[in-house]
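FAQ: What does the model actually see?

It sees only this:
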Amino acid sequence: MKKKNVKKIGIVVVALTVMTSFSRYRVDFFEIAKQLEIYNTVFKEINMGYVDETNPAELMENGVKHMLEGLDPYTVYSSEQDVENAKIFRSGAYASLGVGLRFIEKKLIVTEVFKGSSAAQEGIKVGDEITEIDGVRISESGSSVELLLGGNRNSKVKLVYLQNGQEKKILLQRETATKKAVPLYQMLENNIGYIALDRFSRNASAEVESALKFLLIDEAQALILDLRNNPGGILQEAVKIVNLFVPKNQLVVSTKSNIEKYNTRFFTQNQPLSLDIPVVVLINERSASASEIVAGALQDLDRAVVVGQRSFGKGLVQQSKPLPYGAQVKITISRYYTPSGRCIQALDYSENLESGVVRRINSKNKSVFKTKKGRNVYDGGGVMPDIRLGGVDNLGVYNALKKNNIIFDFVSKNYTSKPIERMDQFELNGSVFKDFKTYCLSKDFNLNTKTELYLDQTLAAAKDENLNTLKTFVLDAKSALKKQKKDAVDQIKEQILWGISEEIIRRSFFKEGVYQYALLKHPSVQKAKQILTNLSDYYEVLK
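And it is asked to produce this:
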């Protein structure tokens, strides 16, 4: 074949490829335009012709939120008001009372009091119920509670609250207080340093670096980095923290997407603070996102031994996009991958089953990856510790107990009358777990599974339609599910007892006290101390 003909064929192939590509995009754009036109028409007809008066803003917001529910829980819409509130909270002019709050059963409950805050000084306790803010009843305030509580520095706010059933009134001063990412660091026995990191905020890496420098000055010869219960935060802070222990130009994490511009690789930028100090990283089932990046990277690079429970498995990356009129949408754009190539995402939202259940990666289908020294590590969601402690929680019972406030409520009902005076002498007695199990099963806590949802819906429908045989069948199924919950609770007895202990300690000694108590008695911390005291065990794991 002549070269001229080959060249012509090549041009034709390229032209066809380009035409096919443009054709595909035209079809996509046409489909988008078609669906938008349908949506707009429905929206207009509902607002113009529905029998009752409608609220256009509410209809649109509900429609958008329902659309996003079919994707993943991290892709979310924020209204103009939500965005403005967030700006106020981030601004230097905004000050708070130094408490954490959460609506529990439609009551505004104090879930945390920060050490040294005006709230702590005036006697507000975890478990107190806020009933009124500056004369506004909580039941009437709607979603404006945080704005009512926050305001300019040194301004005053009047609170009415219930403490152990007794109504109290108080005038508090708002103050600006920066939450520390490192609530505790200190030297332990045998020249082991300890750093607790509970969030990846903007200055997290600087705080960890400062703590590590102090520990090295005090001649720390090994380090425990505690990432338990750390939900993550800023990705770049995670990369900088890994950089404290590994060389410059080392890949820490990559993100992959079907959109090329979101495929990125993050490398260390600086010289490390210490290449040689032995490190143990502590994680648990509530360590997520940036915590998993740090733990996974240090594990893949054989730079640390990871101890605890399998981490949460949140490996999706979000990016905020501005919308018209000040609204915003946060969209999942890619997935995280550790240096060995492992994806840490546990749930695959792109492949929902017909029932609506999100598919969890099957343990039989996990792929093997190699660390820098050739050790086997696996994907399948989260980071699996090198040394695993505690029972296996395949149903996610512990997270369900926390999410449903079961542990919090149990402590509030049973352990608020008398504060703990000495944490070194505090220990739960043997009957506590039995009492807790009875309590949590009586609450019939929800595992957030579709199975439970469908059983409840079927039972309600069977009652309405007097289908007694079916009702009996569903009740039997619910009874079987309750027994499975009971067995699952038994499997994680030690985790539950520790969660109860932490909640009790936090109410007397604040967040710092939780970590100090862990240094005395937590199994993961004790195991880390053991490994770092006998370094032959440490290097055996990494071999």
